[in-house]
Amino acid sequence: MSRTVFCAFLNQEAEGLDFQLYPGELGKRIFDSISKPAWAEWIKKQTMLVNEKKLNMMNPEHRQLLETEMVNFLFEGKDVVIEGYVPIVAE
């Protein structure tokens, strides 16, 4: 049985995550109010960020940058800006 959450990112009911994927209070907030589709979108952005900026997850500053971007993306409606990346727009 999948759980449903009101997704803060999609602004609608959607399938919730199966378990908490991020530690601490922020992880609980994500679990409670971010859907699987929204999390999948974030993972794509996160991968692009890590690759583009050559982030090292052992570096606390890099982890903090990613966390800030994640909160902005999932909860603040701010897209991730990656220098030199131009999204393909369907005509």
Looking at this protein, list some descriptive labels.
mainly alpha; YggX-like; iron; Fe_traffick_prot_YggX; iron ion binding; two-stranded antiparallel ribbon; 3 helices; 91 residues
**Which strand order do you get reading across the main beta sheet?**
1-2
Based on CA inertia axes, which overall geometry fits?
A: globular
Mean pLDDT: 91
Strand tally is 2
Number of domains: 1
Strand content: 5-15%
- Give the CATH topology: YggX-like
Order of helices and strands: EEHHH
Q: What gap, in angstroms, lies between the N and C termini?
A: 39 Å
Helix % is 40-55%
H/I helix tally: 3
- Note poorly predicted spans: none
- Class in CATH? Mainly Alpha
Q: Structural class, from helix and strand content?
A: mainly alpha
User: Under the CATH scheme, which architecture would be assigned?
Assistant: Orthogonal Bundle
User: CATH homologous superfamily?
Assistant: Fe(II) trafficking protein YggX
As a whole number of angstroms, the C-alpha radius of gyration is: 14 Å
Query: Sheet with the most strands?
Result: 2 strands, antiparallel
Pfam families: Iron_traffic
InterPro entries: Fe_traffick_prot_YggX, Fe_traffick_prot_YggX_sf
Protein name: Probable Fe(2+)-trafficking protein
GO molecular function: iron ion binding
